[in-house]
């Protein structure tokens, strides 16, 4: 009996096709901005919260709305509408802040929040759903955001200088 258990423990498990497909898929958080759908890797999302008071930062980029204090940590908040050149609009009840972590070549890991019109859902996307930064799910397009290049190097320096 013990010999059989040892043999079973050293045997390489067989992957079923469905397990392999599931392993290749990645979770994405989807959200709306001005009627369009966007998605970010769910593993980068730290928190989703409703709108709250944002402390303005003087002489900062127009899209940097300010900062919030998140459990003792200062987190810069970027209004994604303004960053994308969309018209500013009044925040609605579904407007929220998605706090996420980005990787900057010059600043390392940076936590920041983005203001989005509304969060939609978490999707499991497979590589065959994605082409040229666009995911197609049930005939609808979702633009995948590259969080690490969302801000230019200069914008990132300004963000880091203000908040860190």
In a few lines, what is going on in this structure?
This protein is an alpha+beta fold and 164 residues long. The protein has helices spanning 2-10, 17-24, 80-83, 153-163, and strands spanning 26-33, 36-41, 45-50, 64-70, 73-79, 96-104, 108-116, 118-125, 130-131, 134-137, 140-144.
Structural overview:
The protein is of the alpha+beta class and 164 residues long. 20% of the residues lie in helices and 43% in strands. A hairpin with a 2-residue loop joins strand 10 and strand 11. The protein starts with a helix and ends with a helix.
Write the layout of secondary structure elements.
Blueprint: H1 2-10, H2 17-24, E1 26-33, E2 36-41, E3 45-50, E4 64-70, E5 73-79, H3 80-83, E6 96-104, E7 108-116, E8 118-125, E9 130-131, E10 134-137, E11 140-144, H4 153-163
Parallel strand pairs: 2-11, 5-7
Antiparallel strand pairs: 1-2, 1-8, 3-6, 4-5, 6-7, 9-10, 10-11
Structural class call reads alpha+beta
Question: What is the average of the pLDDT values?
Answer: 83
Low-confidence stretches: 1-22
Strand order of the largest sheet: 8-1-2-11-10-9
Major beta-sheet overview: 6 strands, mixed
**Over the alpha carbons, how many angstroms does the gyration radius reach?**
20 Å
Distance between the termini: 60 Å
């Amino acid at each position: 009996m013990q010999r059989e258990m040892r043999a079973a423990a050293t045997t390489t498990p067989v992957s079923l096709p469905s397990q392999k497909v599931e392993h290749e898929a990645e979770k994405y958080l989807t959200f709306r901005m001005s009627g369009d759908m966007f998605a970010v890797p769910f593993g980068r999302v730290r928190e989703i919260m409703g709108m709250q008071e944002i402390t303005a930062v003087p002489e900062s980029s127009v899209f940097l709305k300010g900062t919030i204090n998140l459990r003792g940590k200062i987190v810069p908040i970027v209004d994604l509408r303004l960053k994308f050149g969309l018209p500013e609009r009044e925040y609605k009840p579904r407007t929220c802040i998605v706090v996420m972590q980005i990787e900057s070549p010059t600043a390392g890991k940076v936590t920041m929040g983005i203001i989005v019109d509304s969060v939609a859902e978490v999707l499991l996307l497979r590589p065959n759903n994605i082409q040229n930064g666009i995911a197609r799910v049930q005939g609808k397009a979702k633009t995948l955001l590259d969080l690490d290049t969302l801000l230019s190097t200069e914008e990132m320096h300004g963000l880091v200088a203000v908040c860190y």
